[in-house]
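Q: Hi! Curious about what Adenine DNA glycosylase looks like structurally. Here's the sequence.
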Amino acid sequence: MTATTATQTTPASLHAPVIGWFEQHARDLPWRRPEAGAWGVMVSEFMLQQTPVNRVLPVYEQWMARWPRPADLAADAPGEAVRAWGRLGYPRRALRLHGAAQAITERHGGDVPSEHGQLLALPGIGEYTAAAVASFAYGQRHAVLDTNVRRVFARAATGIQYPPNATTAAERKLARALLPEDDGRAAGWAAATMELGALVCTAKNEDCTRCPIADQCAWRLAGKPAHQGPPRRGQTYAGTDRQVRGRLLAVLRDAVTPVPQSALDAVWEEPVQRARALDGLVADGLVEPLANGRYRLPLT
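A: Let's find out. The predicted structure is below.
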């Protein structure tokens, strides 16, 4: 942050307008309702990683109806979690969430722990998810840095269009510096900045006329200089191993009995890529090979 920018943007001057905007414009999402509880927050955080809200909503509702508590999921086969994950993408998240549910059941009596360190110790839980659950479910003071928040901070406080491709130490330091001191207000700030990035300060076609801190935004005040950093990562899918994996899993999700190799061979013509994708699914624990060349979703 330059000296000029620092005089334009201070933590205290940002908090009230952003939190006030959130109170008026926050979406009514099921994981934000009190009845969702910490488990609902955790499920949503797993599902929302690299996946838009509109795709998550129906899967989340079905998931919570089937497994309203961690113990309910832990008692079911991991393959059922993969099946219920549907087409959300990155299905290893389903296995990780199943593993977290088992650990919560075994270590914490079936209740999602409130301590950040205990959350971080759960399988499949990284720094972001632990901070998000502690903040959104338990109202604690943590820096919650997802893509949307990082973009808001990059523009408003640092004066650049996009944050780096990977989260940096400087970003974490800035996020901590911008946190309100009060726990509840810090939790509100975390949710509000995330929503601001999702709805207004978007990656493309940002709407500064709707932004509550446009008059303080370092990037806007600098004339919105174009991105000067490394090229931003694209999200290619067609023709990739991810697409092949998705097609193979779709066959297994729809099957009630083990699937023969021939059924999997039919989903992709190129044999080397198909075999590589299937081997990767097996290595990731998403598919279980059986005798006689048959495959199924994992039971254990």
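A: A fun detail: The chain has two domains: 1-235, 241-296.
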